[in-house]
Design a protein that fits this description.
Layout (H helix, E strand, L loop, with lengths): L5 E6 L5 E6 L5 H12 L29
Antiparallel strand pairs: 1-2
């Protein structure tokens, strides 16, 4: 079963935007937020990584079946 991936987006009173990503291990969080960052101008001031960033992403098992 796939884990739910979530992005919490907050806009502060001064216009600063922050993202918090949940449900993603490893650097996949950056892939998940890349389009939002680009839409907002691509100017990332800081990044704070959770311990889950250093975890290996879960591999998805795939089964290939050959049919005659």
């Amino acid at each position: 079963m796939a884990q739910i991936q979530e992005i919490d987006l907050a806009i502060g009173p001064n216009g600063d935007v922050t993202f918090e990503v949940r449900g993603v291990s490893g650097p996949g969080c950056e892939d998940l937020t890349a389009q939002l960052e680009a839409i907002l101008g691509g100017n990332v001031l800081t990044r704070e990584y959770k311990p889950s960033y250093r975890e290996q992403p879960a591999q998805q098992d795939q089964t290939l079946v050959e049919r005659d």
